[in-house]
Design goal:
Helices cover 43% and strands 15% of the residues. It is built from 16 helices and ten strands. The longest helix is centred in the middle third of the chain and has 16 residues, at 143-158.
């Protein structure tokens, strides 16, 4: 019996498939949490051995794997389970891994999305209602959640943004400050070919501590320093300021506070580089439109169009110079402090 083409499926069935998408994400979470993809990266194994190694129920695990095999995560035959190239993205320790992204999304995002109706009715972020406090305050209160977030952001940097820096060079400037730089992954990539530049990784105290090991690992500890602080209060002086996926976390007024804090620390002519997913016009599919829904549910932030960035930057004393698309869904938004 052949599998029907998606175009031949009725709108009703298509809608049911969309409505049950939570089953896919939860099943993938099981694979990530039990680290099944890592176990299978050395070769196929029988389901009984997989269950024993992960302390899982063999029958339940077999049914979850059978389901995920229909969407290309596994291949199964005669009781043996083999991981596919797609499934290997959930294996730990691989360059293409998004395992910590899976853990982060499901352990911090999934619950709040159950309150999305509340957001639609009131405008309050679902996460604030779900956790009883702002999302990032809840994250920061637990070192384990901070660690998962840092690892997830590193997955995103090396995975979803893979190749985006090819052909791109930061504007001229001796000192580059990565504001909200987490574990320093972004700055590591951007300074790798710029031995003449120094850097600063700036983030909250409980977050930036992770950058020291990352910088040392890549031989940058001697020219990149870690500074702890709050970008609403003050930031270090620099020639180039990098904000990678920061402004999308905040509403316009909060963004203006961040940008004006930078303006106070910098000299006229300082350069600003925003790494953001810029929303294209119309109904054209784009990942930024899905990410914007995440922002709506979790925080007060939003994804923005190029014109919205132009207006925001202008209000903070910056002139937008250009928006440079990359090979990914992210763009470089360059501006100059007036």
């Amino acid at each position: 019996m052949s599998v029907p083409d998606q175009a031949d499926i009725s709108p009703q069935v298509q809608m049911i498939q969309l409505l049950t998408g939570f089953e896919v994400s939860q099943a993938l979470y099981v694979v990530a949490k039990l680290d099944i993809a890592t176990i299978l990266s050395d070769g196929p194994q029988p389901i009984t051995r997989l269950a024993a190694e992960t302390n899982a129920n063999a029958d339940a695990l077999e049914r979850i794997i059978r389901f995920l095999a229909t969407i290309g995560v596994f291949r199964t035959e005669d009781g043996q389970v083999e991981i596919t190239e797609l499934g290997l993205t959930l294996a730990d320790g691989r360059p293409e891994s998004v395992r910590y992204g899976a853990l982060y999304f499901m352990e911090t995002h999934y619950g709040p999305f159950g309150e999305l109706l509340h957001t639609a009715l009131t405008g309050e972020p679902a996460a604030t209602r779900h956790y009883g406090q702002p999302f990032f305050d809840w994250i920061s209160a637990d070192p384990e959640r901070v660690d998962v977030q840092n690892r997830a952001f590193a997955n995103i940097t090396t995975g979803l943004r893979a190749g985006m820096f090819e052909g791109y060079r930061l504007p001229d400037g001796a000192v580059v400050a990565d504001i909200g730089g987490a574990d320093g992954s972004m700055l590591v990539q951007l300074l790798a070919d710029s031995p003449d530049r120094d850097g600063i990784v700036f983030d909250r105290p409980e977050v930036v501590v992770a950058a020291k090991d990352k910088l040392a690992e890549h031989g940058l500890a001697d020219r990149v320093r870690c500074v702890a602080g709050d970008f609403f209060e003050s930031v270090p002086a620099a020639d180039v300021y990098l904000l990678s996926y920061i402004l999308h976390d905040w509403d316009d007024q909060s963004c203006l506070r961040i940008l004006r804090t930078i303006g106070k620390a910098a000299d006229s002519g300082a350069r600003l580089v925003l790494v953001e997913a810029v929303i294209p016009p119309g109904d054209t599919p784009h990942p930024a439109k899905g990410i914007d829904l995440t922002m709506l549910a979790l925080v007060s932030g939003r994804e923005r169009t190029a014109d919205e960035y132009r207006e925001l930057l202008d209000a903070a004393g910056f002139t937008l110079d250009r928006v440079i698309p990359s090979s990914t869904s992210f763009s470089f938004v360059e501006a100059t402090l007036r």
